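Try it yourself: sequence plus calcium ion, in.
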Amino acid sequence: MRMVDLIEKKRDGGTLSEEEIQFIVTKYTEDQIPDYQMSALLMAIFYEDMTDEEITALTLAMAHSGEVIDLSSIEGIKVDKHSTGGVGDTTTLILAPLVASVGVPVAKMSGRGLGYTGGTLDKLESIPGFQIELPEEEFIRLVNESQVAVIGQSGNLAPADKRLYALRDVTATVNSIPLIASSIMSKKIAAGADAIVLDVTTGDGAFMKNLEDARRLAHTMVRIGKLADRQTMAVISDMSQPLGEAIGNSLEVVEAIETLKGNGPEDLVEMCYALGSQMVVLADKAQNLEDARQLLEEALSSGEALEKFKEMIRNQGGDDSVIDHPEKLLTAKYEKSLLAKRSGTVTKLVANELGIAAMMLGAGRRTKEESIDHAVGLKLHKKVGDTVEEGESLLTIYSNTEALQEVTELLYQHIEIGNNGAEPPLIHEIITE
Ligand code: URA
Ligand code: CA
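Structure, out:
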């Protein structure tokens, strides 16, 4: 087989076979196909697209390019959840203990991400002592004993995806549905998931800016999940404004604790129930979504889910007193209110730019090497559709620097107050095939 022939085939609209895709991924991972040929193929895929069978072959080849985690010694159906990215998305922190408390085993490997705020790992690390690096045996033991553990991704998970993603990043081929779908699904499969719940976000703060693209990505991932023998479903959710009220690492841990205490923001709570009930059904712990939701509501109102979070923190070496005293986590030096300049209704809270503002405060990384300030971020007091009086606080800025002019200006530019704004729908669609 010659790479040049395979590039030509795809360039002319042909379909690559499983063997051909396996050859490409293996040889590229072994450094026997140069970046320039791979780049040409990526661009051909960008223009010519791939069939579901091709995407599945690519997904499986990438999943098997490195370590594949074996979770078979954990009893039960392991359901993983993945979000295609959002601003202030606190759902994983809540869902892990919540679904674990109704008996769904959660063996979660999370990434750090290069988002505007940290990834789940960064959020967890804002809890003093919390260990995200555990030996695999310890990780499995914890899930078997306690139903939940969240750790950092092994460095050798889907290495082909890591290299391809870096190449896509510099060849203008990131935004291709077959390439995004295979990238995400390869990592979920390598991490050992039996079943997968996808949260495909859409809107300004998401990868997929419009509903049509989000729908295509969701359908593609659900289909390849099935072809790869992993039950998969997707929720298309709105990310035009941030989810919940907190954006920033320790602020989101506090938000998760408050939510598990029953005091969460309505949209975040609803999102957790929506995704959580899908996970419970896929894990075979309930017959249908209504029963699943009821189980979750009971676990939350009885305090079992909160207790599970406490247990998870303790198991992983963290200071579990933050559950009873979340204010311990609020250590930013300055808290400043952003006041409304007029009365009216909030019509826009641009998720993307609010994320950038949080990053400017130090809550996220611009490059992999940058360190994160866990304490800083934003806490929203108003969401789209809420009415506001002139002089009322729109949000609180938590910061460790006194100079906030740049951040304040950016925030004012991207928060709009008008005469009437309606709350956007939280979930656009649920896709099961
Ligand atoms: N997230 C991923 O993991 N891969 C992509 O290609 C895009 C988003
Ligand atoms: Ca949030």
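One thing you can check immediately is this: The mean pLDDT is 95.
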